[in-house]
Amino acid sequence: MRLISKLYQKYRRTPAPSPAAPVELDLGVALRDSMTRGWLNAETGELFTNFPVGPQDIVADIGCGDGGNARFCASRGARLILADIDEGIVARAAARVAAEPHCAGVEVHVTDSDPLPIASNIASKVVCTEVIEHVEDPARLMAELFRIGRPGARYLIACPDPASEMIQKRVADPSYFERPNHIRIIQHAELDRYVEAAGLIIEGRYSHGFYGSMWWALFWAANVPLDKPDHPLLESWAQTWRLLLDQPNGAAVKHALDDLRPMSQVVIARKP
């Protein structure tokens, strides 16, 4: 869910042949897929595996997109700091966050992150998903993320996995790898270097998103507009994945595929 919805926000900005207004994707299967991997765990209060959020937290979501992650954090009673380059997207994310009755407050910034107009040493949790592959200077972004975290802050950093990106390299529209979209493919060791060079300590590394990786490959094959991705091929893939998750060993198969052909790589880190 997280990756498909956020990528939808990014790629729908690419000029389209028609002015048709974008519509929401059916995220039912994708949401279930993400939650099976550990996202948005209401029972444990974890935004992602080993990344709990609670009312004691100030969460900075850099590149907040449509606010899915931020909304979950707000529902846990956290205070939110939202930042994104698109004013309209930030406004929608802020509205979603403010609608959560347990939210402790929201601060909003429209920024390209260089630099972040956010106070130093303020956030106890820093979330930055699907951003680093867009920026001109990843080291500069990581330095800014480090700066805004307080000592002991924990970080959730995610970006596309090279296994999925190499598929997209062969089948996607060229705009997928053009500004303002992805301008680099980040290898695992490369992401680790960015994180550690900024001064953070890596605590865990994860992968997920086989469903989303294949959805995007099939999307390009279907040749449908992104603002209305209706096609039997995509509907069939969603139904296949739904049936897999319904099986007694479906989660185990999903996790194996996530590890072998993930759409996203995730690093959990800590500021000393």
CATH architectural name: 3-Layer(aba) Sandwich
Give the low-confidence spans.
1-26
In sequence order, what are the helices and strands, one letter per element?
HHEEEHEHEEHEHHEHHHE
What is the beta-strand fraction? 15-25%
Number of strands: 9
Biggest sheet character: 7 strands, mixed
CATH class descriptor: Alpha Beta
What is the CATH topology?
Rossmann fold
Count up the helices.
10
Morphology call: globular
What kind of assembly state do the chains in view correspond to?
single chain
Q: What is the domain total for the residues?
A: 1
Give the neighbour order of strands across the main sheet: 5-4-3-6-7-9-8
Structure description:
The protein contains ten helices and nine strands. With 272 residues, the protein is of the alpha/beta class. The protein has a single domain, classed as Vaccinia Virus protein VP39 (Rossmann fold, 3-Layer(aba) Sandwich). The strands form two sheets. A seven-stranded mixed sheet has the order 5-4-3-6-7-9-8, with helices on both faces. A two-stranded antiparallel ribbon has the order 1-2. α5 (138-148) links the parallel β6 (123-129) and β7. α3 runs parallel beside α4 (87-98), α6 packs parallel to α8 (210-222) and α8 (210-222) packs antiparallel against α9 (232-246). The longest helix has 15 residues, at 232-246. The model is unreliable at 1-26 (pLDDT under 50).
